[in-house]
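Why do we care about 3D structure at all? Because function follows from shape, and shape follows, mostly, from sequence. That is the central idea of this module. The next example makes it concrete: a single protein chain, its amino acid sequence, and then its structure expressed as tokens.
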Amino acid sequence: MDPCPFVRLTVGNLALKIPVASKPARSVVHPSLSPCFCKIKLKNFPLQTVAVPYTPSENQFPDSPLETLAATFHLSKADIDKLAAKSIFSAKACLKIAIYTGRRGTTCRFNSSRLLGKVSVPLDLSGTESKACVLRNGWISVGKEANKGSSAQFHLNVKAEPDPRFVFQFDGEPECSPQVFQIRGNIQQPVFTCKFSFRNTGDRNQRSRSLQSETSSSRSWLSSFGSERERRGKERKGWSITVHDLSGSPVAAASMVTPFVASPGSDRVSRSNPGSWLILRPGGGTWKPWGRLEAWRERGSSDGLGYRFELIPDMSAAAIVLAESILSSSKGGKFVIDLGGSSGGSNGRATTGSATSPACSPRSSGDCGYGLWPFCVHRGFVMSAGVEAEGKCSKPCVEVSVQHVNCTEDAAAFVALAAAVDLSMDACRLFSQRLRKELCNHQDSLD
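And the structure:
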């Protein structure tokens, strides 16, 4: 499999030094008593707002400080070409940063922050698809006194580095048992097929019928991830999707192990009682757990799909949360696992509902042989998957970092996870709404 070129543009090592006047004016926000922040903007990408640590003017910022990441932009080849395109209507591509002192937001309808200055960093991204490049590193004078030697000083590090990815595209909705193509430029090559089915919750052996030698102990262990709260009433259960390679061998699966049930007196799956999927990989003639996805329907203004994905290192170690966020049910969004900081989305479009992975610490040593383990050498972007709004046709596009794919099963596991996220949008629909026929199991009406 050949990857697609991507570039990861990072902004980090932020710091601010402001000379303190002997008699500071009352109208001026004193930096040591008030927070500082900046707004980072790249053309066609969402604005990112991050805090800026204040450094006393007498302190010297080290030449090679401990790297701290503030903002990240993921650029595809198309994004790079657009930024590099010359036009009489647009100037050379730049990263624009506006620095503020004071608190974010407004107070009594007035801005509670004060613009200190602006910084513009020219971006020459040629060659960064194959070689890392530091575009700016060091102190910059900002503010009205920038040319008088007594201005505020802003420190930043802007770096571009290659971040190649495998890109996979479903050619249909997951519940329609589609093919999955690998995309590279204008070339589409089939690599997987998906089989959606209903697992009879009374017969857990059916989930792995495509494997010939599943052991009884494995079935018993897998069932512990489920729930026995399957009851008559409002519930969606037994969905399963198996990913096969082109030879027909199963290489990954996503199985609904906890049904999606409406909470008492309501029409929705609640956060306190979520449904869940187990993401599985084959090994030793049986399915082995790789990750678990929980999903529910959020209440209030954020009405959408809430989810949490956690990695399962082995039977004895505690699971580790890698992503937790909300996807808008009316606009859709992007499911993202990024272990390197904030994510600006890979295409710069709407990031409502995109998720960044929380910072967490390891609780045990895991098996690094499985392609994804957040505390090995590899960090940064892991995967993303687009999810359409509720009721719209969804053909997920999945991006996976090359550094997290060592074999076909690695890639297939991410494809199965993307399918589970997409199907969760339907599983968490209000129970007053009907699902499409492909998602309705006739057996449920007989229970």
